[in-house]
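Q: Given only this backbone (211 positions), what sequence would you predict?
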């Protein structure tokens, strides 16, 4: 069985590869802010966990609709950090990342990762469904100098919540309650359980073709 990863995240790809899975990567063209804005206009306020699942679904559906994909299962993922009831995605710029870390330091947040699957295999039922996995993350009480140095590396600008646990930001995470891989960007146990609902055993992915 071939797994297609609808994500540009190098951390998600590395996590899957470290677990013996070599997916085909097809990056979606989803305008994330526009998707969230449209949903909020239609349904009102969204819970942070729902935002993660909404974006994971949008990415998955965008990629699965392409004509060059066949006989595969498509996985879309998206992560957001929840603090004080609000969802935080990628900071995008240094000022936002700095402000974010000044609010996060010495505190805890919940990292939500939405996972969405679409079954595009031949003779499949075309199943489409999603699950959100959530993990509590505890942050160190960084000094202003530490925040400025970290932001200057550029790493926190393009990752959900403005931090990594598997990169330079790992030294600033003091504890995790839940799934480590979920914080990196894809919960392997969640994905395994989802694939089982499609009658796909995890070990079947170990020899999945690439390309």
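A: Predicted residues:
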């Amino acid at each position: 069985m071939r797994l297609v990863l609808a994500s540009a995240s190098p951390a998600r790809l590395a996590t899957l590869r470290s677990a013996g899975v070599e997916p085909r990567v097809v990056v979606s063209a989803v305008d994330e802010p526009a998707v969230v804005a449209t949903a909020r206009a239609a349904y009102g306020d969204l819970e942070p966990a729902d935002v993660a699942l909404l974006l994971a679904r949008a990415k998955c559906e965008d990629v699965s609709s392409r004509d060059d994909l066949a006989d595969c299962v498509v996985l879309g993922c998206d992560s957001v950090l929840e603090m004080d009831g609000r969802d935080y995605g990628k900071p995008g710029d240094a000022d936002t990342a700095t402000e974010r870390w000044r609010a996060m330091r010495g505190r805890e947040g919940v990292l939500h990762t939405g996972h969405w699957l679409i079954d595009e295999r031949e003779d499949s039922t075309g199943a489409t469904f999603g699950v959100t996995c959530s993990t509590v993350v505890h942050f160190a009480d960084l000094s202003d100098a530490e925040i400025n140095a970290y932001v200057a590396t550029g790493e926190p600008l393009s990752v959900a919540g403005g931090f990594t646990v598997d990169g330079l930001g790992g030294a600033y995470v003091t504890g995790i309650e839940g799934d480590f891989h979920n914080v990196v960007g894809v919960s392997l146990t969640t994905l395994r359980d989802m694939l089982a609902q499609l009658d796909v055993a995890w070990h079947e992915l170990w020899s999945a073709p690439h390309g």
